[in-house]
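User: Predict the complex with manganese (II) ion.
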Amino acid sequence: MQPENLALPVGITLDRFILRNQEAFRYATGELSQLLRDIALAAKIVNREVNKAGLLNITGAYGHQNVQGEDQQKLDVVADIRFIRALTNGGEACAVVSEERHEMVDTGNHKGKYVVAIDPLDGSSNIDVNVSIGTIFSIYRRLSPVGTPAVMEDVIQPGNRQVAAGYILYGSSTMLVYTTGRGVNGFTYDHSLGEFFLSHTQIQVPKTGKIFSYNEGNLDDFPKLVQEYIASCRAQRFSSRYIGSLVADFHRNMLKGGVYLYPPTRKDPNGKLRLLYECFPLAFLVEQAGGMATDGRQRILDIALHDWHQRSPLYIGSEAMVQELISL
Ligand code: AHG
Ligand code: MN
Ligand code: MN
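Assistant: Here is the predicted structure with manganese (II) ion placed in the model:
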């Protein structure tokens, strides 16, 4: 055996990757790099808490509803605090908007150039049952002058203005996947070293796939054409896979090829998923990986945002599958 094979390289850490790529980024001043590292730090802390939730007494309902009128879980609240604290202490984000809060958080970093939108914990219904959950984040450059407090317009930008977006998947392994508009890269967390390492370079969504993902309980409420599309997937004996955590469903489809559908329903006539916290970042990622995202009428990234908590139908994944759906 060659001596090198006794000690194989562990690979590139997320920190090193971010720094190496910094020069190629058009606003290469280092602040965005620092912001991404702050997010990675919060991700490690939330990962620890997700992993030990049953021991830390942070499972179950918190006893409040969030701004969406949904029951908050304790971990929703914990993750929200962890990310906001890391972004506040990091200094690069002047404001944060979170799915869990009514108000924009002014971090006090008025010199910060960026605003961040987060879904701190996605897949709340899976928290207590040891099924994959995630965090979704999205970064914009502020529009208001640096040195002043952030204003509403800073966080009411369309998805095509994102400078970076990504997610953390707390799954059978923990991964951080992100884009700054030059492809999508994935990093796997090594618990023993406390570092994310590059594991998935330049992810590409297969052009087509054989997986379709939707909540079947809602099928009878879907628009007729969506029902027809689903019937054609079934006729071709495609596999139906639905975890119920958007991040996890999206991640699987991105790696394997497939389409995720959350159409309008009677309960949620505008769809259930939130544009700013869920649809925009995943649409940015999927396009960077060669896939597509639409609300059935237009490209998700071009939808005008009027309200932080605005919802949208979402059809996202492999290009050929999304194309077929919209051709109907
Ligand atoms: P969140 O936990 O952040 O509120 O998001 C839940 C979302 C998303 O993760 C998932 O894909 C979807 O809700 C599942 O909705 P249904 O339970 O209606 O299928
Ligand atoms: Mn969510
Ligand atoms: Mn959430």
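Residues 131 and 175 are 15 Å apart (CA to CA).
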